[in-house]
Design goal:
six-stranded mixed beta sheet, 2 domains, 15 helices, Dipeptide-binding Protein, domain 3, seven-stranded mixed beta sheet, alpha+beta
């Protein structure tokens, strides 16, 4: 061995010894210096008020805790709020906070701080929480620990609503500078930020003041922008990544490499969005024909490598809001679809449409194209450049496409999810402002029903059925969480609504 090689080996050994001594002497933290490197996405904003996508809850919840949270079955459970109670007619709900809560900047998290957060969510010019908080007429701090949301109408969905970004309470002190808060989160979550570089990474350390800190066994957390999917498996093998969402077609490669691949249900559902405001979909016969045009199982096999499941609604099978009756309404029947198109005045090859797709999901668009070809519909594919704001502007604000391939990652509240995909102002309703009075009435009935009421589930299922029937959009398949991870990462906490880190350990 050369002198240079011996010096390198010696330095490595010395580094290991120093690390072990520091840990043994208490130099490490309570979790023995455990570290996790997660390759994912950075949020659109680190301020929950200006965060723009539902997917942000996965990263925002590193730094923030919400008033409530969901368990593995999708039920609401306490978080910052240890309990909540409605008034007699369901028009006000009081959340009682845990004692001794603090933000990562050291300021007190009390009822006035929660009030300040909701007030900002309703009034700040660039707030993305306004729609979610539209039914809240006033927030009052009744004591140091009791905060009440006063509602325009009875709404028993509020505990669901505040389990996500809408209830991820930020420090009012930090919010005095909203621009800084958007790049440097100050919450009361499991971790506190130590470094941030836009479009590259965010580093965190464990927050010892998190209310559930005893279940956080990670001391250092590195969040980085996911690399090219083709390099993910190699990244986990090398140790530069510990945890990442994996394209379905790479699952076998990851397993063959000896890595852990975890498949869990998610609220992500993919659709073929149809625009009633554009011909030929102003013709009900054409809309009906497209109900029978898509072989959902083919999408599951090709896009998810058989790991997903078919669905005709924006919820996965087994989820509380999933209505099994809907799955029997429209079977794949290309012959029937062709006959309906002929009745609509379009013989084989006489109808041509444009399919709008995101650059990262052209495979879905190509599958749609091939299946439409089987019913005599010609099509071209228009690819929208990367960027969530570009897609949102092109598709749902301008409503330019005739047809688009897209999907939802879900919401904590089933009612909020239905509003997003089917509501008149729905962020994912390509046919907006189309929404039938029957649909809005069905949603109102769900809101007025307490979660523990025996009628809650039947009314929720009815709202889902009405929403699906009145919308021309066809949901196709549910995309599960597919996670590749270092085998040393144990007890993964992957919920349908998000990835969480309570209980996760590093061996």
């Amino acid at each position: 061995m050369s002198k240079k090689s011996r010096r390198i080996v010696g330095a490595v050994v010395l580094g290991v010894i120093v690390g072990l001594v520091a840990t043994a002497c208490g130099g490490g933290s309570s979790s023995d210096g455990a570290e996790v490197k997660w390759a994912f996405n950075l949020p659109t904003s680190w301020d929950p008020v200006t965060s723009r996508t539902g997917n942000d809850i996965n990263t925002i919840s590193l730094a923030y805790a919400s008033l409530t949270r969901l368990d593995a079955e999708g039920n609401v459970e306490p978080s910052l709020a240890e309990s909540w109670k409605y008034n007699a007619d369901g028009t006000a709900v009081t959340f009682t906070l845990r004692d001794g809560l603090t933000f990562s900047d050291g300021t007190t998290l009390d009822a006035p701080a929660v009030k300040a957060f909701f007030d900002r969510g309703k009034t700040q010019d660039d707030s993305f929480l306004r729609d979610q908080l539209a039914g809240v007429t006033e927030t009052t701090a009744d004591s140091a620990t009791d905060v009440t949301l006063h509602l325009a109408d009875a709404d028993y969905q509020i505990p669901y609503l505040v389990a996500g970004r809408t209830g991820a309470i930020a420090s009012p002190t930090a919010a005095a500078d909203p621009q800084k808060l958007s790049v440097w989160p100050v919450g009361a979550g499991p971790f506190r930020i130590t470094d941030f570089v836009a479009e590259d990474h965010a580093y965190f350390e464990k927050n010892p003041n998190y209310w559930d800190a005893e279940n956080i066994h990670i001391d250092h957390f590195e969040l980085s922008v996911a690399p090219d999917p083709a390099t993910l498996v190699a990244g986990v093998q090398s140790g530069s990544i510990d945890f990442a969402t994996l394209p379905a077609l790479q699952s076998k490669e990851a397993e063959a490499a000896g890595l852990d691949v975890t498949v869990k249900p998610s609220l992500a559902a993919n659709d073929v969005s149809i625009n009633l405001n554009k011909a030929p979909f102003d013709n009900p016969k054409v809309v009906e024909a497209f109900r029978y045009a898509f072989d959902r199982q083919a999408f599951v096999d090709v896009i998810t490598n058989g790991l997903g499941s078919t669905t005709s609604q924006p919820f996965p099978e087994g989820y509380l809001a999933f209505n099994p009756e809907i799955e029997k309404l429209w079977n794949y029947d290309p012959d029937k679809a062709s006959r309906l198109l002929t009745e609509a005045g379009f013989g084989p090859g006489q109808l041509s449409i444009e399919i709008t797709a995101q650059s990262a999901a052209t495979n879905r668009a190509e599958l749609v194209q091939s299946q439409l070809k089987k019913i005599g519909v010609e099509s071209t594919i228009k690819v929208v450049p990367p960027g969530s704001s570009t897609w949102q502007s092109e598709v749902y604000i301008a409503k330019n496409p005739q047809l688009a391939t897209d999907g939802t990652i879900g919401r904590e509240s089933p009612v909020q999810n239905l509003l997003a995909v089917y509501g008149p102002e729905g962020i994912m309703n390509l046919s907006g402002p189309h929404a039938s009075p029957e649909f809005t009435a069905a949603l109102d009935a769900v809101r007025r029903t307490p979660l523990e009421d025996p009628e809650y589930k039947p009314r929720l299922w009815q709202a889902v059925k009405v929403g699906v029937e009145q919308s021309p959009t066809n949901y196709i398949f549910s995309n599960p969480w597919i996670i590749v991870s270092n085998p040393d990462l144990k007890n993964l906490n992957i919920l349908p609504s998000q990835v969480r880190w309570e209980g996760v350990t590093v061996s």
